Structures are given as structure tokens and as C-alpha cells.
Input
Amino acid sequence: MNGAIVIALSDERIQTAFWERPPAQHGIGDDIMLNHKYGYYFFPSLIAAIGIILGTSSLVAQNADWPWMGPGLSPAERAELVLRQLTLDEKLALLHGNGMAHVAQWQMPLTSLANGGAGYVEGVKRLGIPPLIISDAAYGVRDSGANGRYSTAMPSVLGEASSWDAQSACEYGKVIGRELRAQGFNMTLGGGINLAREPRNGRTFEYAGEDPLLAGTMVGNVMKCEQAQHVVGDLKHYTLNDQETGRGFVNSIISKRAMQESDLLAFHIALSIANPGAVMCSYNRINGEFSCENSYTLQDVLKRDWGFKGFVVSDWAGTHSTEKASAAGLDQEQPLADYFGPKLKEAVEAGRVPLSEIDDHALRILYAEFLSGIVDDPPQKSVIDVEKGLEIAQRLEEKNIVLLKNDREVLPIVPSRIQRIAIIGGHADVGMISGGGSAQVDPPGGNAIMPFGKGATHWQDQVWFPTSPLKALRAKLPHTKIDFDTGADVKSAVNLARSSDLAIVFAYQWESEGMDLPSLSLPGNQDFLIEQVAAANSHTIVVLETGTAVTMPWIDKVAAVVEAWYAGSAGHKALANILVGEINPTGKLAITFPNSEKDLPRPVIQAPPTQSQGEGTHLSIQVPNYAVHYDEGSKVGYKWYEAEHKHPLFAFGFGLSYTTYTYFSLSVDSATKTVHFTVKNTGKRAGTEIAEVYAKLPKSANESFKRLVGWKRLTLAPGESQTVTVAIDERVLRTFNEANDRWSLAPGDYEVCVGASSDNTPLSGSLLIR
Ligand code: BGC
Output
């Protein structure tokens, strides 16, 4: 039984983690178990009993050989013990990838071991250190199509942020973590948390909106619970990779104070919740230096100030140097070994990179392996729990959908009053759209809509899930006549709308990594279609499937608007439940919807001098003088609109319900920095309200906007009142002083504002900080 450690005993089986040893060390019984390199093994109770006895002695024997496998040691101590055993080559092998599956130009000798994933890093087999087997997993595990597998698509991250619900975020992460492991992966590349500073950013759906506290809390909880499934967690793309245009070289220019109080703060909050094993540095430059060789953001902030003990992994092909990147704090190059392979070894041998730096990189990777539990509990391939995934994806989407407008209570649909419904556009007869790029989750059965074909998809295809809202609605309303018109011929759609009691227009906007949206308008003829249908039927409802904010030139003409985001594997069912009122909407916007691009800090995204969007060019071409100036500083999203006195179409934090709430009796306890207030459900239905707390800094701070400082979700029966307490998160009250690199809490009178959205805070009080 050498090499086997008994870790758990159930009725009939014993579960054993096995670290493969060289054959000479194998003992009697090993052959029974030796069927998988880093797997669990099951065997009957008789052997189990023997196992306990022998296991105990082998544990002792093994711990003598491999003391880092012994009990009672912290991840840091274990990593330290392993590091001492490593040769230089073993250390260096930890510091780079070995190619990427399914990408022709990124193949290396060991790529086939990547399990069809984005990356593979060799472990140290002789010491029981498993390889990293890495997959993208933004809203579900990537590449199941090409790998012949199945993954649940959770709703988009921006959708999930609209729930303002840390528990839901945790469930989101758990599903993804479980499915990664079932597919044989032990590291995720999820955890996108770039602030929605530029809402046309093609990856906005992968991120959690515009506020550091909300985004940090939501993504932090996703990653905390994902890593708790025993996969190495990750936050990305660190940092200020807030647009895709020219992402491989764009220089994001911003003051230290502004970045600290916005984008960095979001990362820091998420990091403090999730304690992830890894952080991915981004493609762009920050104030002149590439993010993956930026010693300020990596070394000074992330590692020194925040005490991050995990490793920094480069975005794929985001490494640009050997010595400079290593010194700046990059620990692992991906997916190749261009700079951290032979060149790094050479630099070490020539004394240009100190060994201590290599030790630090390797130690961090070992630490992440122990921290995440992948050493003690390696993944074992299994069948994904499809039903459970669908059930959770639906439940979460029900909390993500935001009701933006509902005149004359046109929603929910009351079947006794509505005999005929026209469903128009958006391919609602077939399915719902999803977000593209490396985040893409493949739908079962392949892309539900031609011309993109069924089967393997290109990473920037528009991919539709076979989740038809038309079918879901018909199932919910069996006695209502529901007809469909594609919307391609506007006249025919208008005719159908005119002869119906209710018209629901489905509109979509597709986005993907590697490109930004040219504008926030709905593409194609959708605005026109909506206007025409609304003119024909005063009961017109628009359902949006979008990755970010959209403009709505027709807003005054329609009766209702429902934002469903990219709704995931069971989005159609969630949506139908909301439309018929089985579920009362609770979601609130995590991103501002502006009236027009003119109101954004940058009305247009300046193109780089050389057109460089799109795969194949975006990483290889370098345009040194292309910069984006983030002059709005920390005034991201709602802060910008408030400071600039611009009224958005829909404000951050806004969302309606089928019931109504009033807020009263605010009191602020300055000593404990808590606020108390009462919310009453003044309508006829039970509902869950997200009550939001903002604060304005004292006048001396000269800041002309509020900051979100806390919130509470509370469920209220009709007529019920509840008094709630919200603790103000001090981190978001502080200001960063560039002169001494310190945070401080300005003394003075802070105005506390409480209400239903950032532009509707009926209660105000005062918080005194001495
Ligand atoms: C993306 C990352 C992704 C990586 C691996 C890059 O293009 O920016 O988010 O994790 O590819 O697929």
C-alpha cells in the first residue's frame, strides 16, 4: 500500500487519493489502484478495512518521504517544503505553458496533455505535484463542442451581477467549478472583473458592471465558491483592459489615484473574498508599461500592498520580455514558453535573473496548488449533472432579469385578459443568443441558428442556444394563441402585432472578445422594427438579450422593457416565468444605460493608427503610440453621470418589480458605520427588493458623486415592513493619496443616501467621521 493515503471511508467504498510513485516503490495492492495518474480510487469494503490498517502505516512512511503531504501544514508551508526538493529545471517547468488545444499556431510537444483546454503546465510527478490542466470558464466551461462534452451555460456575468446576490454568485461558481472537475480540469480562467468603464467593450458580458464594490463582491463570491470545488481560481484581466480595440498594445493612461479607487479596488475586493490561486495580467499597457511587466500593478500593488500569495499568469501571448517581466512579478507565461522557457534558463545561468526570483515564482504556483486543494483532491472525470446545472442556471437567471419599464402593468401577462400574443423577431422561435470569444460555452446540439452551422464553432461566431422563448411561453400559456413572426418583413410583423392583444418583440445585441461594439444601438433593423410594432400595438413589450447597455430611441413608445442579458442554458424558462408573473422580477442594473453615446466619457472609441482588431493581428501587431486616456478617472458609470449632470436612460441600480416599495426612517450610527432604515412592500405581491446605500464624501474631498457603500436584498410579503441594517464598507469610502501611496478616510460629514437606485435615493442622513 505504499503510495496510497486513505482519506475517507464510506459504507461500501473507500476513497483514496493516490500519488504515483516510481515503480520500484510500489507495494502489494498498488496495481489494483494504479489506473489513473492523479485520480480517486474506489474499492470494496474488505480491502478498505485492510486499507485503514496499512494506510495508517503508509501515511507515516509517506509523510516521512513527502512531508508536505502530512497533516497540519499550511499551503505556504507545504509549498516551501516542496520547493526545497526541486531542481532548477523542475522549477522552470512550472513557469510556462505548453501550448493551447484547438489553436493551430499554439501547439507544443505536451499540448495533447491539456485535456482539450487552454493550457497545460507540467507538475512534478515524483513529488506528487499535479500538472495544471487549464480551461476557460467565464460563464461555463469552454470548448465542450470540440471536446465532445457538455457544459452548462450560466447567465452572463453582467446578468449575474444584476442579482446583487452573493449567494447566487456562489452557486454560479460552484456549478462551473464542479463542471471543470468533471471534465478533468483543475484550473479555471474565469473571474473577469474589468470595470465597465467603456460599455462598448466587447467583453462587458464577461464582467460584473461598473461599480467596484458590486463587481468585487459578485466576482469574489463566484471565484471563492468555484475554487472551493478544488480548482485553482483566477481573477482577470489585471488590469485596465477596459476595451478590446487594440487590446494587445493600447496604453491605458490613468492617474494612480483614479485606478486605485476604481479598477484596482474592484480587483482588491474580489481578491479579499476569493483568495484565488491566480491573477491573470492583461494584454494592454498601463501608463506606458505592459500589464504583464508592470512592476507597479504587479509587484507594488498586487503582491506587496495586497499581500497576494498566488501566482500571476500572463494572458495568452501577453508576455513581452524575460528579465523585465520576471522582475516585475510575472510568474507564469502562457500559453507558450517564448520568454519563460529556454530564455529564462539562460538568463538565470548568466546571472541576469536571480535564483530567488525563480524560487518566488515557483513557490507561488505550488502555493496555489495546495491552497486550492488540487493536490489532495485531484479532479476525476465524471458525467456532468446536467439537470442540476439547468435548474441552477434557471434560478439564477430569474434573479438576473431586470424589468426596466412596465406601463399600465402590461406585465405580468394575465391569460384571462390576453387571447392572442404576437412574438416577433430575435429568432425567438429557435433560441437565445450567447456571448462569444474565449468565454463561449457551446450549446447542446451545436449552434441553434444557421448560417453558422452545427458543430464546432469559430471563437467569434454568433452562437445561439436552443432555448426558444416562444416554446417556453407556449408551455406556460397553453390556452393563449401565440404566433410568431421573424420580423424580417416589418409589414408582416406589424400586421401580426395589430391583430394581437399583446406584442412581444425580441431584440438582441451580440458581443465578443476581440472586438468592441461600434455603438450601443441594437444592430440591424431592430430599432425600426420595434418602433413600427409599437405604433401598431400599444401593448408592446421589448425583451432584450444583450451583453451590455443599449440605447432605446423607441423607449417612450413601448409599454414594457425586460432585460434578459445572455440568459444561459435555461434562460427561456426563466424569462417565461417572469413574463407570466410566476416569478416577480428583482434584478437591478449593474451598468448604466445611457441615452446616447454622446453622454459617455468618450463618445467614440478611437481606432488605432493601424487597424488591428480581430484575431491574428491583435496580439502580433504593436502600435506603440495608441493610447486611451481615462480622464474620467474614478468616475466610472453612474459616478460620471452624476458628476456631469447627465441623465441616463436607466440608472445604475435601477430595476422594477411587480410590486412597489417605500423607504423610510433612516438612522445612521457613525460609531459603528451602520445605517438602519425601513422598507415597506406597498403593493399586492410578495417581492424581493434590493435596497441600496450610497455615500457622498465630505465637501472638503471635492467629489461630486456618490459611491455605492452597501446594499441589502430583502423579501417582503404584501404590506410587510422590515427594518434593515447595512454596514458601510469602509474600503469604498477611502481616498488614495498619491504622494505617500496611502489610503485615508477623510474626516467630516458624509451624506448617506438610501433608496431603490443610484438616481432615486429618497432617504438621506449624515455619517460623521472624526
Ligand atoms: C483571453 C483570456 C483567455 C485566454 C485563453 C485570451 O485571449 O483574453 O481571457 O483566458 O485567451 O483562452
Notes: Confidence is low (pLDDT under 50) at residues 1-61, 613-617.
